[in-house]
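SAMPLE LOG
Freezer: B-3
Tube label: C17
Construct: single chain, 273 aa
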Amino acid sequence: PAAMRVIVTRPEREARGWSQQLSARGFDVLALPLIEIGPVTDPLARQALDSAWQRLDGYFAIMFVSGNAVMHFFASKPSSAHIPRAWSAINSGIQKNFLPRCWAPGPGTVRALQHAGVAAHAIDAPDAQSGQFDSEALWQQVHARVPPGARVLIVRGADEGTNAGRDWLAHQLAAAAAQVETVAAYERRVPVLEAQQLALAQQAAQDGSVWLFSSSQAIRHLAQLLPAQHWGRARAVATHPRIAQTARQAGFGVVCESRPTLDDVVASIESVP
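STRUCTURE (predicted):
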């Protein structure tokens, strides 16, 4: 039998890795990035980033919403700023409690932080076996250690002002009497798709392909790119309940939820009715 077709919708950089891993598991993979990511272009946003770098040592924790937040935040480091000493591996034994902490909602963000040179002892994240990787799971790990008055910086995308998970975390921090600030490190844009890519997307809406979604925004962009498309025959796997809800609202006929690890995603794809 022909291999099952999987449409990977992550931004280009992540889509490459997922495509390779899923191909190795025997799937016919098509990468169709539905989010384009780039550095912030707004002068005020760039200024805010510079300012955050100069004040890093004053925060209790820096929460990075994703691997992209890490990558673009570190890429924006002004030459006059320094990396907090608490983040270097040399301080491992002595500086367990030194600040600021780095908070990550899942393993992809943890890997990005380590790749950027942050030592494991400076990172707080949900346990690798956690049922979910999101703000709620992160809060379970850190809430008991946040003192009143703690300053927490959330590093996110420029257009993520209404993200349910981030808003939820900001509310929890405020309820714990912490001071929350946010800074945008990157922009998420609707990609420009070629005619051939749009035709493949239309075909994948009805040929039994399985769409893999790890962002609600990817689904909204897809609806924007193909406004007349009916999704009743389309099948999807979503890596979070909120993303699954967005896919159902967009009209996807079959939507399965999965933990965002490779093994779980593979199992979910294989079990799609």
